[in-house]
Structures are given as structure tokens and as C-alpha cells.
Amino acid sequence: MRQEIDAREIAQVTAALMVSEAKSAVKYLDAKTIVRATWHNKPSYKNKHEEMVITIGQPNYRERKFIAKCALECVKLPTKPVLKAWPKSKEWKVTLP
Length: 97
Known about the structure:
alpha+beta
């Protein structure tokens, strides 16, 4: 089943990822729907092109963990800002704008 997603949501996520040096950018539409953009290749001076993967749908395990953490702390899920994630060993550091 496909959902109707506004193109502005996709544009916000891709713009946030292109401007920053993050690996991934996520926008939570609600607790069960996300829009995520991720760089496909590692940054290098040898790269002749950039590839970005856009995912629309259910959150993955990291995002479900973040949603559960927000629910435990009685914090409303941030649906307005685009969250950016930088890989740091096994834990991803998520920053709020």
C-alpha cells in the first residue's frame, strides 16, 4: 500500500542532507512514517558522482529506538525539523536543529 507524501517533505530532507556533512537525514511524519535520505557512497576526492537514496515508509531499528526513547521521556516526537545523523562507531549521533 502506497502513501501520499507531499513532495516538499522529500525536498526538505534532501536539501538538509546536501547542505550538511551528515550521512543521513530523517524527517518523522508520524510514529509509523518517515522520509529518509542517505548518501550511498563514502565521501572521497576520487568520486566523480554522488548518489543519494531516498526511503519513504516505516522506520528502521534506529528510528524505532529513537521513537521509543521519546515516548519514555514523555517528549513529543519532533515532526517539524529534519534530524541529521553522523556515524560514530556503532552508535549514531542524532542532532536536533
